[in-house]
Specification:
Blueprint (H helix, E strand, L loop, with lengths): L7 H20 L4 E3 L6 H5 L30 H11 L6 E4 L3 H15 L15 E6 L3 H10 L2 E8 L2 E2 L1 H10 L3 E6 L13 H8 L10 E5 L17 H8 L5 E6 L11 E5 L1 H14 L5 H11 L2 H30 L5 E3 L8 E5 L4 H10 L2 E3 L16 E4 L6 H23 L1
Parallel strand pairs: 1-12, 3-4, 3-6, 6-7, 7-8
Antiparallel strand pairs: 2-9, 4-5, 8-9, 10-11, 11-13
Helix pairs in contact: 1-13, 4-5, 7-8, 11-13, 12-13
């Protein structure tokens, strides 16, 4: 039954049935959580073989005692693994501790206060700093800008990446736009993969931007495919080399959703000139990363082929969960005109757009019925979705059985909010 074509008496009956179902959910005492994209326990168990790998392996092949201080760039074997994941050379990658978010935050601090290539390049000495934020996007990126007082400008996310006509126009006409956030493969939350043309245009931004512009290329889901023979993401550094914009690119990734979420290793990739300056921040804050954990990861994952084989085991666990989400969306909302959604081929999220103005109410209703969702507006800077329509669903952590229940509740809440709005 399509919402727009339903008569008022039928809407009233529909609402009555939905309220009855909603009341039953409330009385059942559900406590389900779809708020964050965390690996499920079964996924984490895939890395249990890492335990014990260090026995007799705490001295590296080149004689370095991995238990001691030093090795600020990370062990060579881990840097090589990061280079394979990011599509760079080993000399362009440093390996650190568990969080790529930490590296992004530190790099932004570095560029803002100290200068990406020396004090004369510090953003905060040049005026009001601005950053482009593809939306819907990743709330933790936005939080970094808020923390630093960097103004954010929304740019719409299209099916093949950010709206590059808008991006280029903004960058060309405002030298205080100092960078742009990117999640280029299985973008958070829409799941889109940047097209080759978009990657090329992003790589060329340094030719039209003001000085010291940085693309923060957060490739968090670069190996998180749900299916065999996935679409490939174009190598952005290759395009930067063609345009002569290598210094405008900062890449990050981690194993946090590959091995252990709180005990992975992270990578930052950049031109050797950029790394030379960034190392100064690392040398102040640390006497070296956890080299034992890096060694453990190298022994377990070995190389990019090992990473892909391991991630295929993740995909086997995750496919039924994403399929459950799509099943309920299609069956419950597919012909009703109550919203639209993405069907990603990888990553950790499903992006749902309700009828404009209803996301906050849908999330409130779901919470009352025992299903906790990411707050409305979380996928936009400052928590303000101008259309109040985007809802990020995170299906990875709950069991398939819990997802089945949670999605029944979610669909009911979407229907109820939509019918009541129509009435």
């Amino acid at each position: 039954m399509e919402l727009e074509k339903t008569s008022k008496p039928d809407l009233k009956n529909w609402e009555k049935n939905l309220l009855q179902r909603f009341s039953q959910y409330k009385e059942s005492g559900l406590k389900l959580d779809l708020t964050r994209g965390k690996p499920g326990t079964e996924q984490l168990d895939l890395a249990n073989q890492m335990e014990g790998l260090l026995k007799g392996k705490m001295i590296s092949l080149n004689g370095t005692d991995l238990r001691n201080y030093g090795g600020q760039d990370g062990i060579p074997e881990a840097r090589k693994l990061g280079a394979e994941i990011l599509g760079l050379s080993e000399s362009e990658v440093i390996c650190q501790d568990n969080s790529s978010l930490t590296l992004m935050y530190l790099y932004m601090l570095h560029a803002y206060y100290h200068g990406s290539q020396g004090p004369d390049t510090a953003w905060n000495s040049q005026g009001e700093v601005k950053f482009l934020a593809p939306v819907p996007g990743y709330d933790r990126h936005f939080a970094i800008c808020e923390e630093l007082g960097i103004s954010m400008i929304n740019v719409n996310m299209l099916d093949d990446g950010p709206d590059m006509d808008a991006v280029e126009n903004l960058v060309r006409n405002d030298p205080m736009i100092k960078g742009m956030w990117c999640v280029p493969k299985y973008s958070n939350p829409t799941g889109c993969i940047y097209s080759e043309q978009v990657v090329d245009r992003i790589a060329a931004l340094g030719k039209i931007s003001g000085p010291h512009f940085r693309v923060i290329w957060d490739n968090a889901y670069g190996v998180h495919d749900l299916f065999d023979n996935p679409k490939e993401l174009a190598n952005v550094m290759d395009y930067c080399r063609r345009h002569g914009t290598e210094d405008n690119l900062i890449l990050t990734a981690s194993t946090s959703k590959i091995t252990c979420a709180g005990a992975g290793i992270s990578f930052l990739g950049a031109s050797e000139k950029n790394l030379q300056h960034f190392r100064k921040r690392l040398e102040v804050m640390s006497i070296g990363p956890n080299k034992l954990n890096q060694q453990r990861h190298v022994l377990f994952l070995k190389n990019i082929e090992g990473v892909r084989a391991h991630m295929s085991r993740h995909a086997k666990i995750l496919r039924p969960k994403f399929a459950m989400v799509q099943k309920h969306l299609e069956e419950g909302l597919g012909d009703k005109g109550m919203g639209s959604w993405h069907n990603p081929e990888g990553g950790y999220f499903v992006s749902f757009d309700s009828i404009p103005g209803l996301a906050t109410e849908i999330i409130r209703l779901a919470g009352e019925a025992g299903v906790k969702l990411t707050p409305a507006g979380a996928t936009y800077p400052y928590g303000k979705d101008p259309d109040d329509k985007n809802i990020r669903l995170a299906p990875t952590f709950p069991s398939v059985e819990d997802l089945d229940q949670a999605m029944q509740v979610f669909v009911t809440c979407v229907q109820l909010a939509s019918v009541q709005s129509r009435l």
